[in-house]
Every structure is written in C-alpha cells, then in structure tokens.
C-alpha cells in the first residue's frame, strides 16, 4: 500500500501462476471507508503464444472447407501455404473466419477445387510471442487419365 499527498491510497496486487485459461477473467476491487464504498472491475488480459487446436481435412459443403481453430492472445495473424508458396486469396480460394476472445475459427474455402488443388496445406499462426504451423493434406479430385 502507498499513500500519495496524504489523500490518495494505492494498493498493487501481483498475480502469480496466471495461465491462458485466466484470460478475460473479471477482477473486481472494492474499497470501503466510513463514508461508503466504491467498486471497479477490469478484465484480466493474459498474452500467450498461438496454438492450432484444430485443422481438419477438406470437407465438401456448399464450398469445400479446411476447418481450423487457432488460439492466441493477442490474436495471431494467419497465413496459408500450398506447395510452400503463400496462398493469395481469390474468388476460388479464400478464408472465412470468426474472431472470439481467444479463438479464431473458420475455413479455408475452395470453390470447385480440382486435382491442381491437391497437396499439403500449411496454416501459420503468428503473434509477438511466437509462431506455430500445422499441415493437412487436401485431396480434391483424381488426376484425369491422359
């Protein structure tokens, strides 16, 4: 505890053993004295490196989807690679995703994929605490006979 100018008191709290599960926890401070009480709350922000918790093989839906879930705080930036080259989004391949508190969930979507799209797809997630990659094989169509 610290007192400033004989009128303002300050107390610092140190949290130990904080983990990613504690991210967004609501911390509430209550102060009481003879004239009343006051309360203030703040959400705890815990930063942690990215992790890819789900990366599924392509699934045919309206468009074909490689479904993924990534966690990280701050939210990681995502990049996709095919044949070791970064994928440029187009009308035929694009990412559709939703961002939540700690998660990014979505799909790498393919519109009418062919045998040219077969191969390994690598998802890279990066924030200032680290980088992680994970690869899944996508098989869309057999190579046509000559």
Helices and strands in order:
Elements: E1 2-4, E2 8-10, E3 26-33, E4 36-43, E5 48-55, E6 59-60, E7 64-73, E8 77-82, E9 85-86, E10 93-99, E11 103-110, E12 119-127, E13 130-138
Antiparallel strand pairs: 1-2, 3-4, 5-7, 6-7, 7-11, 8-9, 8-12, 10-11, 12-13
Structure in words:
The chain has strands at 2-4, 8-10, 26-33, 36-43, 48-55, 59-60, 64-73, 77-82, 85-86, 93-99, 103-110, 119-127, 130-138. The protein is mostly beta strands. Strands 5, 6, 7, 10 and 11 form a 5-stranded antiparallel beta sheet that branches. Strands 9-8-12-13 form a 4-stranded antiparallel beta sheet, with no helix packed on it. Strands 1-2 form a two-stranded antiparallel sheet. The mean pLDDT is 90. This is Immunoglobulin I-set domain-containing protein. Residues 66-135 form the Immunoglobulin I-set domain. Keywords: Disulfide bond, Signal.
Strand content: over 45%
Structural class: mainly beta
Instruction: Count every beta strand, where a strand is a DSSP E run of 2 or more residues.
Output: 13
Main sheet properties: 5 strands, antiparallel
Q: Total number of helical segments?
A: 0
Low-pLDDT stretches are none
Please state the average pLDDT score: 90
First-to-last CA distance: 81 Å
Question: What's the alpha carbon Rg, rounded to whole Å?
Answer: 24 Å
Shape estimate = elongated
Quick structural overview:
This is Immunoglobulin I-set domain-containing protein. This protein has 146 residues and is an all-beta fold.
């Amino acid at each position: 505890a610290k007192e400033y100018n004989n009128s303002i008191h300050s107390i610092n709290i140190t949290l130990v053993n904080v983990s990613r599960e504690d991210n967004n926890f609501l911390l509430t401070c209550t102060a009481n004295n003879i004239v009343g009480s006051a309360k203030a709350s703040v959400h705890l922000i815990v930063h942690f490196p990215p992790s890819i918790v789900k990366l599924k093989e392509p699934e045919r839906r309206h468009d074909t989807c490689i479904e993924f879930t990534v966690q990280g705080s701050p939210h990681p930036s995502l990049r996709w690679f095919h044949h070791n080259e970064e994928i440029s989004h187009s009308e035929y391949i694009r990412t559709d995703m939703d961002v939540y508190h700690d998660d990014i969930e979505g799909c790498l979507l393919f519109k009418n994929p062919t045998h040219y799209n077969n191969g390994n797809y690598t998802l890279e997630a990066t924030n200032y605490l680290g980088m992680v990659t994970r690869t899944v094989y996508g098989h869309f169509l057999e190579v046509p006979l000559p």
